[in-house]
């Protein structure tokens, strides 16, 4: 007979070390610049998660090591019901693995493309969810800096949660060199390479709710330069005549105050609590929302993701990747990519 204790210890050691072998991959949920996101099941307890599998070679090639490490470092410090939380992080020779809350509702971009516009009640609820998540980050001194519909994901109840901390930063006075972001949602002060604060997130919030109301962004263009030129040439504001039927003046004013080009004129710039105190939210039940006792006005149908999992879906191997991974100095920068609340043991 075999020694069961030896088998148990081997399984415990494997769990402690963390490995892709500890998970069963069920579906592919999405694709990104560095890899893919999968729905996975942890074999130990059958718990479902989302798992980002990121190619080290692609991260090195795109010179994004700092961004990827920054995301994990920030997520270690954060846990909140309105953000997508990290459960563990580990690596092997070729990939980084980030295990996150599984949200089954799809992102806001997917639902915007499907619905084109939303009602005032739905948009107000989306805004409130975003405000709650931003409030948490800002209280921790963190600016998200890439707030957009793609980074807002619905859970199965219909609550929106914020994800992707890749270019989020702990605020510092001299940050004019932090110019990453997504054109169309990027605040003018970032595009113009100026020092900036939490008001950049409020600008993006205004753009998102504008989009929910009118089905388009206030500033559009084929390039970052075109969008920048538009922003610098004219302050866009929603006129009463542009308000959709059944939308309130307060909703239009909320958006207008957020998409102000000058940060000092923007709602929330001087006092973040002003955003929640705006007349549009005068009768909104913030406490029920935070406790998730609110009845969401929009229920997302379950997002099925992509069908078909193959070895090629998970692994993207080529000779160029192997050449990049032979660079020991670069690969050593990933050494700290490890997080296990149970017992983090570095490989």
From TrEMBL:
- EC number per UniProt: 2.7.11.1
Q: What name is this protein filed under?
A: non-specific serine/threonine protein kinase
AGC-kinase C-terminal domain spans which residues?
Answer: 282-347
Give the taxonomic lineage as stored in the record.
Answer: Eukaryota, Sar, Alveolata, Ciliophora, Intramacronucleata
Superkingdom, according to UniProt?
A: Eukaryota
Instruction: Provide the binding site for ATP.
Output: 52
Residue ranges occupied by any Protein kinase domain in the UniProt entry = 23-281
Query: Per the UniProt entry, what are the Gene Ontology biological process annotations, in alphabetical order?
Result: intracellular signal transduction
One term of GO molecular function: ATP binding
Signal sequence segment:
none
Q: Which PANTHER family match?
A: PROTEIN KINASE DOMAIN-CONTAINING PROTEIN, SERINE/THREONINE-PROTEIN KINASE
Q: Which protein family is named in the record?
A: Belongs to the protein kinase superfamily.
Enzyme category, top tier: transferase
Question: What are the alphabetically sorted keywords of the record?
Answer: ATP-binding, Kinase, Nucleotide-binding, Serine/threonine-protein kinase, Transferase
* Organism expressing this protein natively: Paramecium pentaurelia
């Amino acid at each position: 007979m075999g020694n069961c204790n030896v088998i148990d210890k081997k399984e415990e050691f494997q769990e402690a070390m963390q490995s892709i072998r500890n998970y069963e991959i069920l579906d592919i949920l999405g694709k990104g610049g560095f890899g893919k996101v999968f729905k996975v099941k942890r074999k130990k307890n059958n718990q479902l998660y989302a798992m980002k599998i990121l190619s080290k070679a692609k991260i090195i090639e795109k010179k994004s090591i700092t961004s990827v490490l920054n995301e994990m470092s920030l997520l270690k410090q954060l846990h909140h019901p309105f953000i997508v939380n990290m459960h563990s992080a580990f690596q092997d020779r070729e990939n980084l693995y980030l295990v996150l809350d599984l949200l089954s509702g799809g992102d806001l971009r997917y639902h915007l493309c499907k619905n084109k516009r939303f009602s005032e009640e739905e948009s107000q609820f989306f805004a409130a969810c975003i405000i709650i998540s931003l409030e948490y980050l800002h209280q921790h001194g963190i600016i998200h800096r890439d707030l957009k519909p793609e980074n807002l994901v619905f859970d199965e109840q219909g609550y929106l949660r914020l994800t992707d901390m890749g270019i989020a930063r702990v605020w510092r006075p001299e940050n004019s060199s932090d110019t990453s972001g997504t054109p169309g949602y990027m605040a003018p002060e970032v595009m113009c390479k100026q020092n900036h604060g939490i008001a950049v997130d409020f600008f993006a919030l205004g753009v998102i709710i504008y989009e929910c109301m009118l089905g388009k962004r206030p500033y559009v263009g084929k390039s970052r330069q075109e969008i920048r030129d538009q922003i610098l040439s004219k302050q866009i504001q929603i006129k009463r005549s542009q308000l959709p039927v059944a939308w309130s003046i307060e909703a239009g004013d909320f958006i207008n105050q957020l998409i102000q080009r000058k940060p000092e004129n923007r709602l929330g710039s001087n006092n973040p609590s002003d955003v929640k105190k705006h007349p549009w939210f005068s009768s909104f039940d913030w406490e029920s929302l935070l406790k998730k006792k609110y009845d969401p006005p929009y229920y997302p149908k379950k997002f099925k993701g992509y069908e078909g999992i193959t070895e090629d879906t998970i692994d993207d191997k080529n000779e160029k990747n192997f050449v990049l991974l032979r660079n020991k100095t670069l690969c050593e920068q990933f050494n700290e990519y490890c997080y296990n609340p149970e017992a983090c043991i570095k490989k």
